[in-house]
Design a protein that fits this description.
Helix content: under 10%
Distance between the termini: 29 Å
Structural class: mainly beta
Strand order of the largest sheet: 2-3-10-5-8
Number of strands: 11
Number of helices: 1
Order of helices and strands: HEEEEEEEEEEE
């Protein structure tokens, strides 16, 4: 109950808790492109149970993730929260973030990336 109380006592904004490290080693996520323009790209992200991305940020783009299948654990900086189907999270430019799948079913998200530069080298890894 100690962890639940810590989450609910108001010391963390909007449902975020201190992020744990209960996932498998971070691997690059294959993310097929669904649509692309000069200042945006839309991808589908899929993670198997126990998988997680590295903690990363971007210098030139922000992202908006919508969970369309399963329940994801989304970490912003050091705070994490569970995000279910139909829910979304905005990741501001420069914000360290991680996507994980703590469940037993696959997780699928639609990721909308926006910014002046969307190259694969716009990733700063923090772990």
């Amino acid at each position: 109950m100690g962890q639940e109380k810590k989450i609910m006592d108001g010391s963390h904004p909007a449902g975020f808790a201190e992020a744990g490290m209960a996932f498998a080693a971070a691997q690059p996520v294959a993310a097929p492109v669904l649509a692309e323009g000069t200042r945006f790209r839309v991808r589908v992200l899929r993670l198997s149970p126990g998988e997680a991305t590295s903690l990363q940020s971007h210098l030139h783009r922000s992202e908006h993730w919508v969970v369309v299948e399963g329940t994801a654990e989304i970490t912003l900086d050091i705070r994490a929260r569970l995000v279910g189907e139909g829910e979304a999270v905005h990741i501001p430019l420069g914000q360290p973030h991680r996507l994980g799948n703590p469940g037993r079913l696959p997780v699928t998200l639609i990721a909308v990336e926006t910014g002046g530069y969307l190259g694969a080298d716009d990733v700063v890894r923090h772990d």
